[in-house]
Amino acid sequence: MNLGLIGHPVGHSLSPWIHNQLMQQQGLNGEYKLYDIDPEQFDERMAWLKTQNLDGFNVTVPYKEKIIAHLDGLDTSARHLGAVNTVKCTEEGWIGYNTDGIGFVYSLKQRYPDLFNGSAKALLLGSGGAARGIFEALIREGIQEVNVSNRTVERAEKLIKELPFDGKADAVTLADAEQTLGMYDLVIQTTTVGMSPEEDSLIIAMERLTKGTVVSDIVYRPMKTKLLAEADKRGARLHFGHEMLLQQAVYAFSIWTGTSPESKLLLQEFEQKLKGV
């Protein structure tokens, strides 16, 4: 297998470790390379990449939307989202997928299946690419209501209007999100707030959080962000960013290989790696 990741920067990525473990688990030979691509050379480098006989590659910031111009097809989710994080290289060309949302929901279901009872209300903090994928997947999996909060409310409104869904959703200010925090069963932080080296940052205060609420942060460095630490103090149930990271990678790997990797043990090993054990 010839796999890889394109983005800028990518040197910090844990994807090589994950996919090398998956290849080993499935008895496949190959390697997963990092391609750090200068934005000014993107188009030229994509033409070069098409000569490298890749089986597939992941796409991270800032190219999840820009890559689409170089693709020969999109799956339904990627088309709805207007963003791609996984490309399969086929005889018909490069086909784009988005595994962020489905990876998030699968990891959440593994830990807290009770959330998917048809009556849960969720608050999504942020309206970027990750938020779009998670929003669509939550609606598709039966979360009753998904409200979106962002520093710029217009961006939250735009996200809701652009994605097809059958559920209930409203755009709310961050101030309103703080005040109404207690009404939600699930709170998801999808921005870079709290990521190293700004570990002490919070996107909203957590004082009104209700005990037992599931709080998720897609930031995985640090593993336990300030948001999760504050939620933990208030009796919340926690869901960590590395769980989504692993599951979206597993889905991408399945797209490339047609295999069904086992992820439970791998998740434990991944946690140990992140903790430096």
Which key terms come to mind for this protein?
globular, 277 residues, 6-stranded mixed sheet
If you had to describe this structure to a student in words, what would you say it looks like?
The model has no long low-confidence stretch (mean pLDDT 95). With 277 residues, the protein is of the alpha/beta class. It contains ten helices and twelve strands.
With strands numbered from the N-terminus, the spatial order across the biggest sheet is 2-1-3-5-6-4
Apparent shape: globular
The assembly state of the depicted protein chains is: single chain
Order of helices and strands: EHEHEEHEEHEHEHEHEEHEHH
Average pLDDT over all residues: 95
Label the structural class: alpha/beta
Helix content: 25-40%
Radius of gyration from CA coordinates? 18 Å
How are the SSEs ordered, and which strands pair?
Layout: E1 2-7, H1 15-25, E2 31-36, H2 42-49, E3 56-59, E4 73-74, H3 76-81, E5 86-90, E6 93-97, H4 100-111, E7 121-125, H5 129-140, E8 145-149, H6 153-162, E9 171-172, H7 174-179, E10 186-189, E11 214-217, H8 226-233, E12 237-240, H9 241-257, H10 264-274
Parallel strand pairs: 1-2, 1-3, 4-6, 7-8, 7-10, 8-9, 10-11, 11-12
Antiparallel strand pairs: 3-5, 5-6
